[in-house]
Amino acid sequence: MWVCGAVFRLRALAGPRKGLCPASGCRGPAAASYSASADPPRVRALVYGHHGDPAKVVELKNMELAAVGGSDVHVKMLAAPINPSDINMIQGNYGLLPELPAVGGNEGVGQVIAVGSNVTGVKPGDWVIPANPGLGTWRTEAVFSEEALIEVPSDIPLQSAATLGVNPCTAYRMLMDFEQLQPGDSVIQNASNSGVGQAVIQIAAALGLKTINVVRDRPDIQKLTDRLKNLGAEHVVTEEGLRKPEMKNIFKAIPQPRLALNCVGGKSSTELLRQLAPGGTMVTYGGMAKQPIIASVSLIIFKDLKLRGFWLSQWKKDHSLDQFRELLLTLCDFIHRGQLTAPACSEVPLQDYQRALEASMKPFVSSKQILTM
Amino acid sequence: MWVCGAVFRLRALAGPRKGLCPASGCRGPAAASYSASADPPRVRALVYGHHGDPAKVVELKNMELAAVGGSDVHVKMLAAPINPSDINMIQGNYGLLPELPAVGGNEGVGQVIAVGSNVTGVKPGDWVIPANPGLGTWRTEAVFSEEALIEVPSDIPLQSAATLGVNPCTAYRMLMDFEQLQPGDSVIQNASNSGVGQAVIQIAAALGLKTINVVRDRPDIQKLTDRLKNLGAEHVVTEEGLRKPEMKNIFKAIPQPRLALNCVGGKSSTELLRQLAPGGTMVTYGGMAKQPIIASVSLIIFKDLKLRGFWLSQWKKDHSLDQFRELLLTLCDFIHRGQLTAPACSEVPLQDYQRALEASMKPFVSSKQILTM
């Protein structure tokens, strides 16, 4: 998800990264190095040396692989998405920024090839995803410390595994942690076609919640509406439609929402608040409009509306790895039951990353770019 | 406190009002009536028949007094303040609006003259204040139902009793109900010279909390600063000063606030949020700037800031009369210990109400107008 404004520098990465050796910080004697023309090339990675336009600063480089230490895991990456937060991190506009140079990508799924002698949690053949952001997933292979990885079932679709660790987790936690919702209750969200938005629609439907999904108007709005309704959306309205009195008709059939999920900010957030039931909560997890939240004083006072924020990285800091694992397994249950699918994806081979980066930054993107290795 | 924007019509008044008979709704055979020239005049009251500029729509009228029914209390009003919320209610810009015509004023203290045969809670000589807004306190005498009144100790200063039921209650609840503060913690607020603001300074100081008090710049700023510091303010800064880097110096001596109290909105609210410690809460209870709250998306997400609202009327709906009585007694303890005084007041006889109304609506009012009967 995209987030504007102030940036907090990453204090500690998820775990030591051994696949890429940045300017400093590699441990042990077998540190790797990267070069534009290693011979023979063993690992390829999308690397950026400074923040800026991803199309300009990201380069495909050959790297040497670090030796596998006792607590390390050698992983062959299978697929890794390009998320808005990856783009923002490269641009330098994100709450976590890695030391440079860095390998791009914070999500993805890999298969374990080999493990160090002290590794007990995973074995060759297992599928793993990053336990935290900052790992650098846009590469063919890497050696990570065991604690930087978390196992996922290998019987779920590859695209689901590659996109499991951020957006569906964010969607589920926002639905569960702010209001005590019951089946039949409603939820309103904007940016409903985003990765989080699509996960919200599906998970909410699986929980018996009715979603009101706000999207930007566009030429193929009916196609988008149909697609979101196929996912389980109860209502799909445009930002403009949200401001029309006809919205009241929706609430003849379903209750006013006690939860609003805001990834846009600006006017869109003002309108989401207007739709909330008294005592309801708006949770902000992104600011795609690059504008602040604008909230009516009288609604906050007289309707007791609450404004909160959600950031999965903070949730993970505040919870144990076992709790994160439990969250992932809950989501895999939805996947196994056919209730949660990956967002519409376009798989692009790693070497065609320029095309994938450009496609991911176009407005009205309806297809997530997934790099395959 | 002043509140802009949407208005919710009062569903039920605090209790039947017998002193003034509006267009309908009086019970019993002894309903009162009002006229511009009753003969002989027994009761005088400040009445408005429609919403508008208080200086134009409020009139001093003579009224007849209702008979005292079994559950009624005959009260001689002693003193009643002119609060911003009274002005907004007359203007029609408030969350509760009485049926018209109505007697102005929502706060004040009166002395019981006589009680009906079923009244057990108060006796002649007792001091009483309204249990809820909407009672109409700007009058010399009235007959109220017992349930519309609440007793207060008669050994506190008259001005304290007349201003006890709204602002200090709001200040105390906001300090207690949103963040678990400990002695040494800090609180930041704007509109610090308001009735609530002055109560916040004093109650916070009594609780060992350090207040950072934001005020609008003005010619006599040093005089105001001295006055607020005499009340217990730790720091007094102007709105402009709040935006200067020197603010950081304050936080070398005291911790960043986990609680911000916002009665202004607009840019002032944006700045209050910037000063909050991670995880902190901004509670909005007014919107003097007549502008919405503008909140940085990244602060809400990455610093987990929370935005809430507080409205004493809602708190009272959600709590019992005994809980309100307990709150008043807690505040009276502060008063008895010399830790809570009434805001600077100017006492004005009821017949000079025009002067008092005008003074209460001037910018930079540093003295609360109190009507005496």
Q: Structural class, from secondary structure content of chain A?
A: alpha/beta
Largest sheet of chain A: 7 strands, mixed
> How many structural domains does the protein architecture of chain A include?
2
CATH homologous superfamily descriptor of the largest domain in chain A: Medium-chain alcohol dehydrogenases, catalytic domain
Instruction: Please report the first level of CATH classification, the CATH class of the largest domain in chain A.
Output: Alpha Beta
Mean pLDDT of chain A: 88
User: Regarding quaternary structure, how should these chains be classified?
Assistant: homodimer
Count of alpha and pi helical runs of chain A? 13
What general form of chain A does the structure show? globular
Of all protein chain pairs, which has the greatest interface, and how many residues does each chain bring to it? A-B, 35 and 35 residues
What's the end-to-end separation of chain A, in Å?
Answer: 24 Å
The helical percent of chain A reads 25-40%
Quickly describe the structure.
Chain A has 373 residues and is α/β, with parallel strands linked by helices. Chain A is built from 13 helices and 18 strands.
Structural descriptors:
Rossmann fold; alpha/beta; homodimer; 2 domains; 373 residues; 6-stranded parallel sheet
Overall description:
The structure is a homodimer of 373-residue chains. With 373 residues, chain A is an alpha/beta fold. Chain A has 2 domains: 43-163 and 342-372, Alpha-Beta Complex (Quinone Oxidoreductase, Chain A, domain 1); 167-314, NAD(P)-binding Rossmann-like Domain (Rossmann fold). Helices cover 29% and strands 23% of the residues of chain A. The first copy, chain A, has helices spanning 54-57, 84-91, 158-162, 167-177, 195-206, 221-231, 239-242, 247-253, 266-275, 297-302, 312-318, 321-336, 353-361; strands spanning 34-35, 43-48, 58-63, 72-81, 102-103, 109-115, 127-130, 141-145, 149-152, 186-189, 210-215, 235-238, 259-262, 281-284, 291-295, 306-309, 345-349, 368-372. In chain A, the strands form 3 sheets. In chain A, strands 4, 6, 7, 8, 9, 17 and 18 form a 7-stranded mixed sheet that branches. In chain A, strand 10, helix 5 and strand 11 (210-215) form a beta-alpha-beta unit. Mean pLDDT of chain A is 88; it is low at 1-38. Chains A and B meet through strand 15, helix 10 and strand 16 of A and strand 15, helix 10 and strand 16 of B. Strand 15 (291-295) of chain A pairs antiparallel with strand 15 of chain B.
